[in-house]
Amino acid sequence: MGRFRGRSSTVLKPKTTQEVSEILKWCNERRIGVVPQGGNTGLVGGSVPVNDEVVLSLSNLNKVRSFDPVSGILVADAGCILQSLTDYVAPHNHIMPIDLGAKGSCHIGGNVATNAGGLRLLRYGSLHGSVLGLEVVLADGRILDQLTTLRKDNTGYDLKQLFIGAEGTLGVITAVSILTPPAPQASSNVILALPSFDNVLPLYQTVKRQLSEILSAFEFIDRTAYNLAVNHGQGRALSDEDVEGAECFVLVETSGGRREHDEEKLADLLESLLSADKPLVNTGVLSQSPSQFSSIWALREGVTEAVSKEGKAYKYDISIPLSSFKRVVDDTREHLRSKGLLHDKAVKYVLGYGHVGDGNLHLNIVADAYLPEIESALEPYVYEVVAAQRGSISAEHGIGAMKTHALPYSKSAVSIDLMKKIKNTFDPNGIMNPGKVLE
Amino acid sequence: MGRFRGRSSTVLKPKTTQEVSEILKWCNERRIGVVPQGGNTGLVGGSVPVNDEVVLSLSNLNKVRSFDPVSGILVADAGCILQSLTDYVAPHNHIMPIDLGAKGSCHIGGNVATNAGGLRLLRYGSLHGSVLGLEVVLADGRILDQLTTLRKDNTGYDLKQLFIGAEGTLGVITAVSILTPPAPQASSNVILALPSFDNVLPLYQTVKRQLSEILSAFEFIDRTAYNLAVNHGQGRALSDEDVEGAECFVLVETSGGRREHDEEKLADLLESLLSADKPLVNTGVLSQSPSQFSSIWALREGVTEAVSKEGKAYKYDISIPLSSFKRVVDDTREHLRSKGLLHDKAVKYVLGYGHVGDGNLHLNIVADAYLPEIESALEPYVYEVVAAQRGSISAEHGIGAMKTHALPYSKSAVSIDLMKKIKNTFDPNGIMNPGKVLE
């Protein structure tokens, strides 16, 4: 996004865990801050130095250590690129349990450090479940070896969990043991146009009941987001006639073990939706080919690209109850209008899309330029809205350098006190990624 | 099991989180130890006082706080019995993500505090993934409210994870927010007799590939365990002829969204197994009715009961590579024989069964009576075998009071040092479940 620019002049690229250990020991003794950096694809400035810290790039720690095709357990260095791991396990008919837009450059260590969510969370759960073990270098250089390849281990506190999502503030992840699921044999998808947002909830229930274990994505796109994606070249699956009167859209994906069974379930779902007395959807298009499958996904994934082409985006990645998705987008738009900021030279679009199954809304405000008055209209407004619903101000992007001030909107004083004590226990000199997560 | 007997005379049964808070504050100021107690069904003495601690029973904190049928998210007091929660969500077509033998009396809070595994882990993953939030009373009486109903929240350290599996040594869990999956529409199972243990691994790969997302259990039973269960009245599914020459048995369960699809997949699997040139199985019986489904499961679940009827059992619950399951059982038997302890008046049987998909072997040594010479022959022998394979000395049962001395076999000195620091941070006066997990 170009919103963060580091000021560090030193980048170290260790080749082994032992080298990482020596660097941290050296820095810790001298109270020198260290910023661990993976693929540098984060959205909240978590891997960017705020002062003159040393940047510790994990890019040369990039070997697969082992893979067991029976259990599907992969052990890889932190600097392995997500896509290369996907390619590595593919011949064994396994997939990585996470998938996200930045897969071509993000590192598995960074994924774990930021507890990345992405498109497969609905089906395969979070990294807190699929990461089996970690190797971490602590601030004082000690190596915490919890690189187990066991699915179950109930011997004491599950320390690795603390590093998942700590954004490098408690130690440097140098290797990851992760459970990879068997690859589905077949995937299909359908794009549905809904007359009203009110239909999303009952639709979600119907889809879950009918597709059960083969449901792998249920993505929401509001009309504004849809129009932007179409204007920028996506969305040929639905005709103009199809989308007339649609207030929002839902993309449903299935992934399963036998194509004919999956297609039968999806076709039956579509038929029952369209033939209902009071249909929840106006229309729906089922992908009939791999290229149509891709073009339906491109509509959803194209929203991000369309937003960046349209202007400067303020992106909020929030968890709120599903029933509030539309109201939060509408209220934010009205709030900006009431401040006189909804016009061509300020905010052009307010839109929402996201992962319904995870309760995760991406609220995007697309502006002509980043302006202080827009920022002060949005914050703390958005955070207050989220806090009022006991939501999360950062569902998957993390806190980084950008949202440390906003942490109290999602976490209680007791929680933050304990976090600070843990930070102090693991990193008493405060060298690990200073200025991130905790102020 | 009757191996642990508490010495405490005070049992408190608070009715609210606030009362729990007041009790802990009072005890903390006076340095009085507190043992949180759920259904008291643990196997390692985790909920039993070792001295004169106060027992804090959660049994009166037993209300469901909320359930959202759209998301499947349940919020319940810690003292709710697992079976009653299963019954609560059933009318909404949801199930609990865990299931275990003690479901009729164990508490959800105890399940979380001990990170219970059980029969559904293969399908629904561990509690580190399915628990979304916790309410915990800290040692000093402060209430840590992380009782979120969000699937995704990336704001700071995931503190709740520390309490999952901490066995009440860091605080008292008073409420749990948990994701309940949709109930499968159909379940089937099959019992397979294998000529050789060497066939278990290739069988597991074949079954995973053919059943994919509907595979919900893959349980291993060795011949000794099978014979014991049959002698105690289970196992009518297979005839004497069927089991002749079988070295071990595997129970496969499917759970899916549409009965005809699931049955077709399972029937095709069985046919391909039996018609192979070099069959991996001697024979297999597919359940044809709900009663046959139950009787096949009763064979697996009946092992525990048979063991307790046969004598006094030393139970080891270990994680090791699947390929070592048989060798560890055989080696243990030979080790006991070499010590002159394998006869009617000492060790009668050494047997193994467990969750193949989780790499979790239950190694049982059935003796005529608990004898010191058996115990000293088994420990540290079994722990050393596990450590040599980088396994876990407690896959799901925990550490409790019973295995604190054995923790170093599964955890490094750095890990244990960090655990002690965390313990000290959360509970500086050491009042929380003293003598458990850490020595």
Automatic annotation (TrEMBL), chains A, B:
GO function terms (MF aspect): D-lactate dehydrogenase (cytochrome) activity; FAD binding
PROSITE patterns in alphabetical order:
FAD_PCMH
Return any one Pfam family short name. Answer: FAD-oxidase_C
Tell me which residues make up the FAD-binding PCMH-type domain.
Answer: 4-183
Query: In the UniProt record, which is one GO cellular component term?
Result: mitochondrion
The UniProt entry, under InterPro entries, shows:
FAD-bd_oxidored_4_C, FAD-bd_PCMH, FAD-bd_PCMH-like_sf, FAD-bd_PCMH_sub1, FAD-bd_PCMH_sub2, FAD-linked_Oxase-like_C, FAD-oxidored/transferase_4, Oxid_FAD_bind_N
Q: Which domain of life is it from?
A: Eukaryota
Annotated catalysed reactions: (R)-lactate + 2 Fe(III)-[cytochrome c] = 2 Fe(II)-[cytochrome c] + pyruvate + 2 H(+)
Name the cofactor(s). Answer: FAD
Q: What are the protein's UniProt keywords?
A: FAD, Flavoprotein, Oxidoreductase
PANTHER family to which the protein is assigned, alphabetical: D-2-HYDROXYGLUTARATE DEHYDROGENASE, MITOCHONDRIAL
Family affiliation: Belongs to the FAD-binding oxidoreductase/transferase type 4 family.
- Its protein name is FAD-binding PCMH-type domain-containing protein
Q: Which organism is it from?
A: Cyclocybe aegerita
